């Protein structure tokens, strides 16, 4: 983040001081933003200035910890937090990492509000504060709210962003994930319509590559790649047919947008009820299919795609494999846990650990033992408080004998973790409940 740029900005000018609300018609408890606006404003800016160092996969939790306590007290605080973020975004180079993080923060903050519909309406006022044709604004809003993009919306947006002088300068609106994702999902859905497909793919290519250096050539390259992937996915109706089109799928992951299209296509297919797309008995015969290996490759290449890949693994782990023998079911799920372990190695650590910790009591003991022993074997010391607590939650449901069949070095990794977590030399300041849990784990596993 360019700190000079941020510090030169007059904080009081970032957001206009709000008028005192009509007390008769407002809530009895006036929000903090009205009690001491300058202090509130300074606090928000100070927090946002630390955002540049936050990794993409940690932004959601960062918003929960840092902005929700003061930015979501009620509609007034929420509105002015979003207004401040929008002001900072406009004053920042829109392609900078900080600007991209600000947009993510705005979206995540909206997801945390109690009244989502009210928050969305406020977001539209803030996000589209410059002159945009009302019909375009309606289409963008409808796509965000419905999570679908109709042929009419696609046609309207394509015309606007390719022919309108104002629209050609606002391609960043299309790149907003809340807009782009429904458009992209619609291009690779199993039930997609051919009507308007060419225009849809052109719009996606424009959103992905438009405005870049050599934009015209890059848009054409991206459009051609999207067309090939759309044609390929249209004829691949099973994992068996996938193996007959491997070169096309390998080309698809060369671009971020086609890699994301591949994820959405595969997600819909493998999460169908039953084994219509992929017969898991084939896994036992041939081990992992290449279609899953490509997700590992995408995770390495594109950090912003990792959360979508993780959701596929979580969903498959929740799947009922009871039609197979218990041994096969465990084997399948160990493979899926190994995919999550691979995501950890790419740097997508805390989001996975939080999900696994939250679901620890629902995971088979053998599976959780497999997962947590590998986490502790792979992770580098020193351990942080942020890592210790979710791992402790994963250990909590396990029996004292859980690790007795693990390799000696993995058993040692568990002991090393517990020693470090309970060391008097650390200053993690656990609360009483956390301290009791960690002490009980030492007594159980050492």
From TrEMBL:
<dbReference type="GO" id="GO:0032021">
    <property type="term" value="C:NELF complex"/>
</dbReference>
<keyword id="KW-0678">Repressor</keyword>
<protein>
    <submittedName>
        <fullName>Negative elongation factor C/D</fullName>
    </submittedName>
</protein>
<keyword id="KW-0539">Nucleus</keyword>
<keyword id="KW-0648">Protein biosynthesis</keyword>
<comment type="similarity">
    <text>Belongs to the NELF-D family.</text>
</comment>
<dbReference type="InterPro" id="IPR006942">
    <property type="entry name" value="TH1"/>
</dbReference>
<keyword id="KW-0805">Transcription regulation</keyword>
<dbReference type="GO" id="GO:0003746">
    <property type="term" value="F:translation elongation factor activity"/>
</dbReference>
<keyword id="KW-0251">Elongation factor</keyword>
<dbReference type="GO" id="GO:0034244">
    <property type="term" value="P:negative regulation of transcription elongation by RNA polymerase II"/>
</dbReference>
<keyword id="KW-0804">Transcription</keyword>
<dbReference type="Pfam" id="PF04858">
    <property type="entry name" value="TH1"/>
</dbReference>
<dbReference type="GO" id="GO:0003723">
    <property type="term" value="F:RNA binding"/>
</dbReference>
């Amino acid at each position: 983040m360019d700190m000079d740029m941020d510090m030169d900005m007059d904080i009081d000018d970032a957001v206009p001081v709000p008028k005192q609300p009509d007390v008769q018609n407002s809530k009895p408890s006036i929000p903090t933003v009205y009690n001491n606006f300058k202090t509130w404003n300074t606090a928000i800016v100070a927090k946002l200035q630390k955002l540049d160092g936050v990794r993409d996969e940690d932004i959601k939790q960062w918003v929960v910890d840092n902005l929700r306590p003061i930015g979501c007290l009620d509609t007034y605080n929420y509105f002015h937090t979003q207004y401040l973020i929008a002001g900072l975004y406009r004053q920042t180079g829109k392609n900078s990492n900080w600007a991209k993080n600000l947009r993510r923060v705005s979206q995540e903050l909206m997801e945390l509000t109690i009244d989502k519909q009210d928050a969305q309406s406020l977001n539209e006022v803030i996000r589209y504060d410059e002159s945009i044709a009302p019909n375009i604004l309606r289409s963008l809003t409808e796509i965000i709210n419905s999570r679908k993009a109709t042929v009419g919306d696609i046609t309207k947006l394509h015309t606007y962003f390719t022919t309108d002088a104002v629209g050609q300068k606002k391609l960043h609106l299309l790149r907003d994930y809340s807009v782009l994702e429904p458009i992209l999902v619609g291009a690779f859905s199993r039930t997609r319509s051919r009507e308007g497909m060419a225009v849809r793919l052109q719009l996606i290519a424009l959103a992905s590559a438009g405005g870049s250096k050599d934009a015209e050539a890059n848009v054409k390259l991206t459009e051609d790649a999207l067309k090939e992937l759309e044609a390929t996915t249209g004829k691949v109706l099973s994992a068996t047919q996938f193996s007959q089109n491997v070169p096309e799928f390998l080309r698809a992951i060369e671009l971020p947008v086609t890699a994301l299209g591949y994820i959405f296509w595969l997600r819909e297919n493998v999460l169908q009820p039953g084994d219509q797309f992929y017969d898991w008995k084939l896994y036992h015969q041939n081990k992992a299919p290449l279609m899953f290996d490509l997700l590992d490759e995408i995770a390495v290449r594109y950090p912003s795609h990792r959360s979508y890949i993780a959701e596929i693994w979580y969903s498959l782990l929740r799947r009922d494999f009871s039609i197979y023998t218990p041994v096969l079911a465990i084997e399948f799920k160990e493979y899926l846990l190994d995919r999550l372990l691979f995501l950890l190695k790419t740097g997508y650590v805390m989001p996975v650990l939080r999900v696994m910790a939250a679901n620890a009591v629902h995971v088979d003991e053998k599976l959780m033992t497999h997962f947590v022993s590998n986490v502790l074997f792979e992770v580098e010391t020193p351990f942080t408080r942020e890592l210790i607590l979710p791992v402790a939650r994963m250990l909590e449901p396990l029996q004292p004998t859980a690790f007795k069949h693990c390799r000696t070095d993995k058993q040692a990794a568990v002991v090393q973790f517990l020693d470090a977590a309970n060391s008097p030399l650390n200053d993690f300041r656990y609360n009483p409940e956390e301290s009791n849990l960690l002490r009980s784990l030492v007594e159980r596993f050492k």
